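If you are new to this repository, start here. Below is one unmodified record pulled from the training split, so you can see the exact layout before writing a loader.
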Amino acid sequence: MYGAHLLILAHFHKGYENEINALAILLVASVFAKLVDTALKKRGKLVPDAMAGRELSAAASTRLRLVRRLVLAMIVLIGIAGALAQFPEVASLAKGLLASSAVLGLVLGFAARQTLANGIAGIQLAISQPVRVGDLVTFEEETGVVEDLRLSYTVIRLDDGRRLIVPNERLVQSPVFNHTVVDPAVQVEISVWLPPGGDATQAVELLSAADDVDARVAEVTHEGIRIAVTEWASSARERGPLASRLRKESLQCLRDASLSSDVAG
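And here is the target side for that same chain:
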């Protein structure tokens, strides 16, 4: 009985040898890619400890992300190539295509132009660093924090929580305003309104009394007087919490002085 089972398995393996080998290669490549990714992640987490507890810079973090994804892409491509090589038909086709490599190169280049362009642009972004993970940027009138830089696209988290997905080729070719490329600190501005005829001088004095807070008259209309209140955040990630706190404290300050129209922006 046992021998019969072995015979059946031997026939099955012989009949599907190529498929089994291909699946085995893909499985090994997937496991190896996972192990390498885990090792690179651990290595990235150990770097700040080696730097006396200092956080990894935005530039270094962006490059490490790209290196991880390039290594994983190479492992996956090698695994796919190895799996396809197990089929004689594919090998014969590959030999025939190599004979006409010039034509093949033109066809593949044209078909994958967009994908290749985005990948090359991703490498360029990681090397030249016009934007980095954690930077506050404005792209096509949308402002947000760079959340992730992948090989083919970049993820920007907007102020309202939405994610803007930008192909890297567009990011390279279009103007991008990077507000934190030199200094990570960013200025946060909120607006509070006084009713028409309100005491703007007193409001500015009250709102400027707090440390590191500046206030000025920004606009006067028939609807009222807009007071702009500004304070510096240590990083782009602190913009939201700081703006919320600054808005709340400014409205409370004006309300206590009976100056507020209870409108903030």
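Two things worth knowing about this chain: The first strand starts at residue 136 and ends at 139. The radius of gyration is 29 Å.
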